[in-house]
Design a protein that fits this description.
Elements lengths: L45 H6 L4 H9 L16 H16 L7 H27 L1 H18 L10 H48 L2 H6 L2 H43 L2 H46 L1 H6 L3 H50 L6 H42 L8 E2 L8 E10 L9 E10 L2 E7 L5 H9 L3 E10 L2 E4 L10 H6 L6 H10 L3 H6 L17 H14 L4 E5 L7 H15 L4 E5 L11 E6 L2 E6 L1 H7 L2 H8 L7 H7 L12 H13 L1 H7 L2 E2 L4 E2 L5 H25 L22 H11 L1 H34 L8 H47 L2 H6 L2 H43 L4 H45 L1 H6 L3 H50 L6 H42 L24 E8 L9 E8 L4 E6 L5 H8 L7 E6 L2 E2 L5 H5 L2 E4 L8 E2 H5 L7 H10 L3 H6 L7 E2 L8 H15 L3 E5 L7 H14 L4 E5 L11 E6 L2 E6 L1 H5 L5 H7 L3 H20 L1
Parallel strand pairs: 1-5, 4-8, 4-9, 6-7, 7-8, 15-22, 15-23, 18-21, 21-22
Antiparallel strand pairs: 2-3, 2-5, 9-10, 11-12, 13-14, 13-16, 16-17, 19-20, 23-24
Keywords: ATP-binding, Membrane, Nucleotide-binding, Repeat, Transmembrane, Transmembrane helix, Transport
Family: Belongs to the ABC transporter superfamily. ABCC family. Conjugate transporter (TC 3.A.1.208) subfamily.
Protein name: ABC transporter C family protein
Length: 1363
């Protein structure tokens, strides 16, 4: 290779001699928890599986330690996403082959149904065990009656009561074992369904064609992956209850008939009358749920878009406009949610009041008709009625859930059936050269739309070692031709074939949230030789030296902590490292400075890639002479084609453009052969050493200008280079770099606050703070909540009174020795009165509480969204978008739909437990002796359990966020993922993230069953001791008291279990409130409006800017990016800002908008310190034209004028000013024409023009332009510059420039380096200093262009002198 390392060609690297680097740390850490261990479920014994004893070691670990993700067991093999998804994908493929309607749920049943049937078998045994207790209770009461009536009968065994106690206990335990096995199976199948759906949705999102992508949005798909998939998962947990509810009801009715006879049919009649209500309400709930989903999708789409473009929204002070859009969507959602809650509350009221109504009617008939039913039969009937309450109570929840699940499964199926992109035909003939072959091909973005953009009659052959340049005006189809080759546009006619691997560099760089090194490798193996060469070629060496962590520096979402040029160079480096055969480069040079662009063209495009097939879209016409072929696009077609020479000889329109911009003829073959030895400023030499080298460089300048190959910014002049001299110079610079690196190793990197940009998601530990509960209930009103609690207590009291009064009544009717002396009718009237009161209280409880919960959810969402909008930009720099979306999707869904039921049931079961213990303790006081230690044991078990459950739930929530972040990232870079063939890698990443989420999910489900079984054991002990003490005290207790005590003891097991599980479930759901409170109480930027310090509406009236010792850091603890900036800018002055990458140019603009607050110093507009005014008052009076144009989904009108402040005439005038009048007139809707997600239906150049329209409409007194014309061609660039000069001549303009020709006629130039202003003067005076940095930057554009720039600066100076 010799000394000239840059002469290495990527394709010629010998892979057999690669030096492999192992980045895996070898330091052994003390292992905590069970990370990496096989899941005990896979090897547990039958006894351990039956009792869930295999989780006890884990539960003890959680009790002793704060649980972390790394402490968890590996997933059981059957629960892994890869295993689960294969089953459902296999069945779904079978479903797709059917001619009839494709049903995703049918595929699910075939995939997982057999295992679920095992759970149903267990549940059937549990249901059967429920009836054993009442049967034995009836026999026990009958046995006691026999003993009382036949005291001298020696044939009666007095110990039968104890046998009954053992039998009831045994039957209950068998039921408990079967119930929790069934629950775990249901939970597992539900989680399989969720995992399969998430994997399928993610994989499908990577396959969608353009038309399908425009039918949906990232927010809607996030909704599918979070809420819809979760709905289906939860449905499986409850499904057994719904399946067996009818059978339980039939069994109860049959058994009640056996006890009390024909009055049962009266109760059955009431149930039949009420039954149609369920179907009617279910249809109503389904309709409302569809409305909720629609509003929720719209809300999430808006929030996703706001988070993606939060920087632009803040710069334009558009928070109010977008907040109103989200508020409108949320209000629509709340309206539907209120209807849903009211209908659901009505259904619950009807169904829960039915047992009370049946009880009143049936027992009134029993006693009034004098059917002669004995007390033992009455209490058996009461026990069966208590069993009947459960299926009747659960049915409304089942119907509501089924309504939601039906919507969810249909939405998922509809998404999975969307159209997919068709793969581009590949050539396998080895005799054909690698390349792209299109013959009379026509492409369309959306065939179904008449106004969709098309490419027509495209015929190209880009093959072998060639450089094809694609040029044309804005909207001519340059980027579309790249997308067509990649398969994103639909081929309508003709043919398109490709041979070879493709690498793609998009116009807007795709950056993943990982290290810089991983962004370049992009899944490829690390090859040090290739990697170092790529870093050198792509001018990234100096950037790596600037980062303390080097190439291990973490890059935030969408490259938030990188400049536009850095992002693009990393994107180019990824492509070069991939060592592909075909390179599609979509205008990659527009985002970088001119001298960096020259470096990239020489070292990469005509250097590293000179033996590749390269298709380069470019607005830099100066590189055209180096192309083997040039395609000139206009109006969707290839208007002209040929080499530079052929185009010039054709005397076509494009040749006039070339002449206009001074593109000269050249010997491109000579220049290409020598261009790889060129060096430039970004050769990786540190700034300090570079400055020492400046004098030597400048001494050689005249000689180099005569001997180097130079690529101008506007013109091209080519001469032979002196290769030997350049090699020596390169060797010298390499030695200096090595010396600098050695020095850095000795001194170490500069101090940093933290190596991690994206922080680990915040998380509380221990019990959920009572303050979290208070914050939730406070949103609905503490007074109202207190009243609702009172209603709950009143409801339980009336329910207990019904049973107690019935026992007194039955005892009086049978034995005539009641404690209350009333006639039968009076007993009936009191009984009916209590029953009616219970029904009314139940109605009040349902409607009040569900309305209360909707209010809480509404206000928390309002507070959360308001807080997010007020967060400073540093928050968005360090917080992944998926993490925030998780709050607005899954966590908000918990508040909207789930927390109300958990809270309601927890309070209800808790009051029932208290009432039950009071009743059985009053009847059998000695029962308090065994109950006391049982309650203590119960407390310790549930405390022990909560240590596991709450931390597992927190891990479930935290591990869910990366799934959404990865998904959002994948959608943004889906074209790059396709181009590099990384679909399967990303699906594997999705598998991994899903498995990480499923680890705590499955462990939580298992530990729930572990707890339930142990609580059932304690509850069954209470039943056992109740029967024992009843048997002991049979002579002193009335039959009514015995029946009441046993019937209530039979219900305490389920009440204890459900209260504990619901309490824990409530705590885990309060975790969502806790997580949302983190952001509600998070960091905030300065106030939007300071009432006592509001400037005039016309401020700043003049536009003068004064900066005094401005110091700014992006975050606390980081090095300042602006270091003592002081300068004054006169009103209406035009200021250009130039400097190397990382010099602080963009940071200075951000400081003007207070997007980042100053650490020190001040900035004043017209003498008023901007820190003394509100952000809204400041930003709405400024404007910025950003480098990365962004459009919001909606209409063109909304994107130009989000506050609807301008009439149609004014908007059309703006559209004419930005040269889009003809285009907009052709589109359906005119000003209201559609703008799709991210503005994908507009070219990048057109998006930039629309952004220009915004500032024309705004007409601010101070305008900042951050290389706002980078994405447009030279003609449009010149036109935009002239438009800005004409329209904003009475404004102060600050322009960050890559193209120096755009600012050479400005009043003054700020030259920045390392966060400081090192030069600030007129262009003429700056160029008068031959050793100045601005002079060097101008010289770097090449001799021809630098002479033009200097001549232009001198002419402007002379004209000003004359004036």
């Amino acid at each position: 290779m010799g000394e000239d390392f840059t002469s290495i060609e990527l394709g010629s690297i010998n892979n057999n001699n690669q030096e492999k680097i192992d980045d895996t740390p070898h330091t052994k850490e003390n292992k905590i928890g069970f990370n990496g261990e096989e899941n005990p479920f896979d090897r547990a014994s039958l006894f351990s599986l039956a009792t869930f004893a295999w989780v006890e070691k884990f539960a003890f670990h959680c009790f002793r330690n704060v649980l972390e993700q790394s402490h968890l067991y590996n997933l059981a093999q059957c629960d892994k996403s890869s295993t689960v998804s294969k089953k459902i994908q296999k069945e779904w493929q079978k479903e797709l082959k059917k001619d009839k309607k494709k049903q995703y749920w049918k595929a699910s049943i075939r995939a997982y149904g057999l295992y679920y049937c095992l759970g149903m078998l267990f549940y059937s045994v549990y249901c059967a065990s429920l009836f054993v207790g009442p049967q034995l209770m009836s026999k026990l009461i009958n046995h006691i009656l026999l003993l009382r009536n036949n005291t001298n009968d020696d044939t009666l065994d007095e110990n039968f009561g104890y046998y009954y106690a053992l039998a009831i206990f045994g039957a209950s335990m068998i039921g408990s074992f079967c119930n929790y096995q069934s629950n775990l199976i249901s939970s597992r199948v539900g989680n399989w369904m969720r995992s399969g759906m998430v994997v399928d949705i993610y994989a499908k999102s990577l396959k969608l064609d353009t038309a399908a992508r425009r039918q949906t949005s990232p927010g809607e798909i996030v909704n599918l992956m979070s809420n819809d998939a979760q709905r289906v998962s939860e449905m499986f947990i409850m499904l057994n209850n719904g399946i067996f509810a009818p059978f339980l009801m039939i069994a109860c009715i049959v058994l009640i008939y056996r006890e009390i006879g024909w009055p049962t049919f009266v109760g059955l009649g009431i149930m039949l009358i009420v039954a149609p209500t369920n179907a009617i309400v279910a249809r109503k709930l389904l309709k409302i749920r569809l409305s909720i989903i629609k509003s929720s999708d719209r809300r999430l789409r808006l929030i996703s878009e706001i988070l993606q473009y939060i920087k632009i929204i803040k710069l334009y002070a558009w928070e109010d406009s977008f907040a109103q859009k989200v508020t409108d969507a949320r209000n629509s959602e709340i309206k539907s949610l209120s209807k849903f809650s009211n209908v659901k509350a009505g259904l619950i009221f009807i169904v829960t009041s039915v047992p009370n109504i049946i009880s009143m009617v049936v027992f009134a008939i029993v006693f009034q008709a004098q059917t002669g039913v004995s007390a033992d039969r009455v209490f058996s009937a009461m026990a069966y009625l208590n069993i009947l309450r459960w299926p009747l109570n659960i049915l409304p929840l089942i119907f509501a859930m089924l309504a939601q699940v039906k919507v969810s499964k249909n939405r998922v199926a509809k998404f999975l059936l969307l159209s997919e992109r068709k793969p581009v035909e590949t050539i396998i003939d080895p005799s054909v050269e690698n390349g792209v072959y299109a013959n009379e091909a026509s492409f369309n973005w959306e065939v179904s739309k008449d106004d969709s953009f098309k490419l027509e009659n495209i015929s190209i052959q880009c093959k072998g070692s060639s450089l094809t340049m694609v040029v044309g005006c804005v909207g001519s189809g340059k980027s579309s031709i790249c997308q067509a080759i990649l398969g994103d546009m639909e081929l309508i006619k003709g043919s398109l074939k490709i041979k070879g691997k493709i690498a793609y560099v998009p116009q807007q760089a795709f950056i993943i949230n990982s290290t810089l090194k991983e962004n370049i490798l992009f899944g490829k193996e690390y090859d040090q030789v290739r990697y170092d060469y790529v870093i050198e070629s792509c001018a990234l060496k100096r950037d790596l030296e600037m980062f303390p962590e080097g190439d291990q520096v973490e890059i935030g979402e969408r490259g938030i902590n990188l400049s536009g040029g850095q992002k693009q160079r990393i994107s180019i480096a990824r492509a070069v490292y991939s060592d592909a055969d075909i390179y599609i480069l979509d205008d990659p040079l527009s985002a970088v400075d001119a001298h960096v662009g020259k470096h990239l063209f020489q070292k990469v495009i005509t250097g590293a890639l000179k033996n590749k097939t390269v298709i380069l879209v470019a607005n830099q016409l100066n590189y055209i002479p180096f192309a083997n072929e040039v395609l000139v696009l206009d109006e969707n077609k290839i208007l002209e084609r040929g080499t530079y020479k052929e185009l010039m000889e054709s005397q076509g329109e494009f040749s006039k453009t070339l002449k206009l911009f001074g593109i000269h003829d050249c010997d491109s073959s000579d220049s290409s052969s020598n261009s790889t030895v060129m060096e430039d400023s970004d050769d990786g030499i540190p700034e300090e050493e570079e400055e020492d080298d400046d004098n030597q460089i400048r001494e050689d300048k005249e000689e180099e200008e005569q001997k180097e190959t130079i690529v101008d910014d506007l013109g091209v002049t080519v001469v032979l280079s002196q290769k030997k001299k350049m090699k020596e110079r390169f060797k010298s610079l390499r030695k200096r770099a090595t010396k600098y690196k050695s020095k850095r190793k000795q001194t170490g990197p500069p101090p940093m606050a933290s190596k991690e940009l994206v922080k680990v998601e915040e998380r509380e530990t221990g019990a959920v703070n009572l303050g979290v509960y208070y914050s939730y209930f406070k949103n609905g009103g503490i007074g109202l909540f207190g009243f609702i609690i009172f209603i709950f207590i009143l409801e339980t009291t009336t329910t207990v009174l019904i049973s107690w009064w019935l026992s007194v009544w039955s005892n009086t009717m049978q034995f005539g020795n009641g404690s209350i002396s009333l006639i039968s009718d009076q007993y009936l009237y009191v009984y009916i009165g209590i029953g009616v009161a219970a029904v009314i209280v139940c109605c009040l409880r349902n409607f009040f509480f569900f309305s209360f919960s909707v209010t809480c959810a509404k206000r928390i969402h309002e507070n959360l969204f308001a807080a997010i909008l007020k967060c400073p930009m540093s928050f968005f720099d360090t917080t992944p978008m998926g993490r925030i979306l998780n709050r607005f999707s899954r966590d908000q869904d918990v508040l909207d739909q789930m927390i109300a039921s958990s809270t309601s049931q927890y309070i209800l079961y808790s009051t029932q437990i208290v009432a039950t213990i009071v009743i059985i303790s009053v009847i059998t006081p000695f029962l308090l002796v065994p109950i006391a230690p049982i309650i203590v044991l119960y407390y310790f078990i549930q405390t022990y359990y909560r240590c596991s459950s709450r931390e597992l739930q927190r891990l479930v929530s935290i591990s869910r966020s990366p799934i959404f972040s990865h998904f959002s990232e994948s959608l943004q870079g889906v074209t790059s993922i396709h181009a590099y063939g990384r679909e399967q890698d990303n699906i594997m990443t999705n598998y991994h993230l899903l498995d990480e989420n499923n680890k705590p999910t499955m462990m939580l489900q298992t530990i729930n069953q572990w707890l339930g079984l142990r609580l059932d054991f304690l509850g069954n002990l209470i039943i056992f001791f109740t029967v024992i003490f009843v048997t002991i005290n049979r002579d002193s207790l009335t039959i009514a008291s015995i029946g009441l005590s046993i019937s209530y003891s039979l219900s305490i097991t389920s009440s204890l279990n459900r209260a504990t599980l619901q309490g824990t479930d409530l705590e885990t759901k309060m975790n969502s409130v806790e997580r949302m409170n983190h952001y509600i109480n998070g960091p905030t930027e300065a106030p939007q409006i300071i009432k006592h310090s509001r400037p005039s509406k016309k401020w700043p009236e003049q536009g003068g800017i004064t900066m005094d010792n401005v110091v700014m850091s992006y975050r606390q603890g980081l090095e300042p990016v602006l270091k003592g900036i002081s300068c004054s800018i006169a009103p209406n002055e035009k200021i250009g800002i130039v400097g190397r990458t990382g010099s602080g140019k963009s940071s200075l603009v951000l400081a003007l908008f207070r997007l980042i607050e100053l650490s020190k110093g001040s900035i004043k507009f017209d003498g008023l310190d901007i820190s003394q005014v509100g952000l809204k008052d400041l930003r709405k009076n400024l404007a910025v034209l950003p480098q990365e144009a962004c459009l919001f989904a909606g209409t063109l009108r909304m994107n130009l004028d989000p506050f609807n402040e301008c009439d149609d005439e004014g908007l059309w005038r703006i559209v004419k000013d930005i040269q889009l009048y003809d285009k907009v007139k052709e589109l359906e809707g005119g000003l209201d024409c559609a703008v799709s997600e991210n503005g994908d239906n507009w070219s990048v150049g057109q998006r930039q023009l629309i952004c220009l329209g915004r500032i024309l409409l705004r007409h601010p007194k101070i305008l900042a332009i951050d290389e706002g014309t980078a994405s447009v061609d030279a003609t449009y660039d010149a036109w935009i510059q002239q438009t800005i000069k004409d329209k904003f001549k009475d404004c102060t303009i600050i322009t960050i420039a890559h193209r120096l020709n755009t600012i050479i006629d400005y009043d003054r130039i700020i030259v920045m380096d390392a966060g400081k202003i090192i030069e600030f003067d007129t262009p003429h005076r700056l160029l008068s200093n031959p050793h100045g940095l601005f002079t060097w930057l101008v010289d770097e554009t090449g001799p021809s262009n630098s002479q033009q720039l200097k001549k232009l600066a001198n002419t402007i100076h002379q004209n000003k002198q004359l004036n």
